[in-house]
TrEMBL record:
One function term, GO molecular function aspect: oxidoreductase activity
Name of the featured protein: Tyrosinase copper-binding domain-containing protein
PANTHER family: TYROSINASE FAMILY MEMBER, TYROSINASE-LIKE PROTEIN TYR-1-RELATED
Taxonomic placement: Eukaryota, Fungi, Dikarya, Ascomycota, Pezizomycotina
The keyword Signal is annotated on this UniProt entry: yes
PROSITE patterns named among the record's database cross-references: TYROSINASE_2 (PS00498)
Keywords attached to this entry: Copper, Metal-binding, Signal
Organism whose genome encodes this protein: Arthrobotrys oligospora (strain ATCC 24927 / CBS 115.81 / DSM 1491)
Keyword Transcription carried by entry: no
Signal peptide annotation: 1-26
Residue ranges occupied by any Tyrosinase copper-binding domain in the UniProt entry: 282-293
Length: 358
């Protein structure tokens, strides 16, 4: 990989690390109660999908989700529609759109909201293209960390009912000094082992068709950044722009942040999830980011409806003194979905989005 792309990767990483954190208390008013009790729901959202933690899904729900993800990644069943040359599958569309937009969607005010929309369209595609009937699950890492169990024993990494575990250990470069990296090679078992699953784009920003195994490189110390204290710290702000800042924080490996915990705890130095551009090649990407979306919703719910209208943070990465995003700011997913304004996606049960969290 060229050194420039390594630098960019480093910067991105830092962003990812930004302390992300979370949801402590459910509000007694809106708590986990789906509409119609939620008073700000659009008439267009009568039956929100209820997103659950991976561990809360039944065995058959887990199986159905994994089958749908495999379906999106199966090029015989589906073909790219994003218009990015070289892509082979509907899953590649998502990896490609993330890769193309990586320089504009990290360390900006719309980081979380872009990903909110991205996940919602992914969830919609799983349902519409692959017949999935459930909601996008999330992964509450803090519960696993607090269990005291080894990462290989965590439900999400189960070989049979989860996403498979660590990659086999290989020696390799570790330019950012990820501590205790322990894999780096191909994930040997489970539904995403080669050749059942193939990561087709990357490494880095390359959009060339480059099918290869899914690699993971667990780092226990990085994973353990995602503590409840860190989650609480992110949530403990009054303004959206501060929430957005704390989620990503400063891009260095010495400052814990929840976003980076998932990316580098699982992806380490050599795994797909640690690759800023190509990270959606590991399907766990979507569960990790959905947890952060749940954090944002937790923060919003603490003050409704005010926090349905509060946005801020830089338009240009790291430009903290320059112009801020506003509700009229548009985000898009290339040809995958219509562009939307931030105002349209602030509400989980609005005219565009229709889901809630358990
Ligand atoms: C994880 O679960 C714990 C226990 O239910 C909860 O307190 C915490 O807010 C959850 N974290 C996230 C990020 O959802
Ligand atoms: C999953 O499979 C790998 C490779 O065979 C093995 O090393 C690991 O122990 C298995 N995990 C569990 C939890 O059994
Ligand atoms: C953007 O918002 C930040 C934080 O509220 C503020 O300090 C900054 O001055 C704003 N930028 C502009 C150009 O107004
Ligand atoms: C979304 O906006 C971008 C930038 O303005 C534009 O190039 C693109 O064509 C729009 N996409 C759609 C699907 O309208």
């Amino acid at each position: 990989m060229a050194s420039v792309s390594r630098l960019i990767r480093f910067a991105v990483i830092i962003t990812l690390l930004g302390p992300f954190v979370s949801l402590i208390s459910a509000s007694p008013t809106y708590g986990n109660v789906p509409s119609p009790k939620y008073p700000f729901a659009s008439p267009k959202c009568r039956h929100p999908l209820i997103r659950k933690d991976w561990r809360a899904l039944s065995a058959s729900e887990k199986k159905a989700y994994i089958a749908a993800v495999q379906c999106l990644g199966n090029k015989r069943k589906a073909k790219s529609i994003s218009g990015i040359p070289g892509l082979q599958t509907r899953y590649d569309d998502f990896q490609g759109v993330h890769s193309v937009q990586t320089p504009n969607i990290h360390w900006v005010g719309h980081f979380m909201l872009w990903h909110r929309y991205y996940i919602a369209i992914y969830e919609k595609t799983l349902r519409e293209v692959c017949g999935y009937r459930g909601a996008q699950p999330y992964w509450n890492w803090t519960i696993d960390i607090n269990s005291g169990k080894d990462m290989s024993q965590w439900p999400i990494f189960n070989n049979n009912t989860g996403f498979g575990g660590n990659g086999v250990y290989i020696d390799g470069e570790n330019p950012f000094g990820i501590p205790e990296r322990s894999g780096g090679g191909c994930v040997p078992r489970g539904p995403f082992a080669w050749p059942k699953w193939s990561v087709n784009l990357g490494p880095g920003s390359s959009l060339d068709y480059n099918p290869r195994c899914l690699a993971r490189d667990f780092s226990r110390p990085m994973m353990r950044w995602a503590t409840q204290e860190l989650v609480n710290w992110v949530l403990d702000v009054k303004k959206y722009s501060d929430f957005a800042y704390r989620l990503e924080n400063v891009p260095v490996f010495t400052v814990p942040n929840v976003h980076g915990a998932g990316h580098f705890g699982v992806g380490g130095a050599l795994g797909a999830l640690g690759d800023v551009y190509a990270s959606p090649g590991d399907p766990i990407f979507f569960l990790h980011h959905t947890t952060m979306d749940r954090m944002l919703w937790t923060w919003q719910k603490r003050k409704l409806p005010a926090r349905l209208y509060d946005v801020g943070g830089p338009i240009i990465p790291f430009d903290y003194t320059g112009p801020n995003i506003t509700l009229g700011f548009k985000v898009g997913l290339g040809k995958l979905a219509p562009n939307v304004t931030l105002a349209q996606i602030m509400n989980l049960q609005g005219d565009i989005l229709c889901y809630d969290y358990q």
